[in-house]
Amino acid sequence: MTWEATSAFVELGLTFYAVLAVWHAVRWGRAADLRPALWAGLFVGAAAGTKYLGLLVLAIVLGGVALVSLCRRRPADIAAAALAALAAGGWWYLKNLLVTGNPVYPLVFGGKWLTPYANAAIHNGLSAYGVGGGSPGS
Do residue 90 and residue 114 come from a single domain? Predict the structure, then answer.
């Protein structure tokens, strides 16, 4: 745990944000107060901005909040949670959109603004990454 917390890996942070998002969503479900919905939105946005797998956390938690909020006839709660999520995690996707033309890069390669040089550099770097990759410069 100590090694993971002091390393460059983001899984521990993603787990932290996911657990806090679910906890605040449950708190919101028990009491019809807007603040836990805002916190849940903030934490799902942080999860989505930490790693692409956080988008799954966002979909599940905000989906549940949306369902309950529509049943309660309180659409402002889901709107507030979604805006908090966008404020927390949307910057990562905006950066990807501006730099590559693709907000979920590199999950879907390409983009209308990706230059041939950048595209070649990215593909060369990825081909040499991990087990079985080529050596740098080959």
Answer: no
Q: Determine how many CB atoms are found less than 10 A away from the CB of residue 72.
A: 12
* Residue 22 sits in the same domain as residue 90: yes
**CA proximity to 58, closest of 94, 100, 87:** 87
Over residues 80-125, the pLDDT tens digits come to 999 999 999 999 889 888 877 778 876 666 555 566 776 777 777 7
Determine the straight-line distance between the first and last CA of the chain, rounded to whole angstroms.
37
Which two three-digit tokens encode residue 84? 């908090």
- E-strand ranges in 1-138 read none
In whole angstroms, how far apart are CA 119 and each of 34, 50, 51?
A: 44, 23, 22
Pair 27, 70 in one domain: yes
Domain limits at 136?
A: 108-138
User: Is the whole-model pTM more than 0.85?
Assistant: no
Identify whether residues 118 and 95 lie together within a single domain. Answer: no
**Residues written for the chain:** 138
- Indicate whether 85 and 115 sit together in one domain: no
CA distance 27 to 65: 11
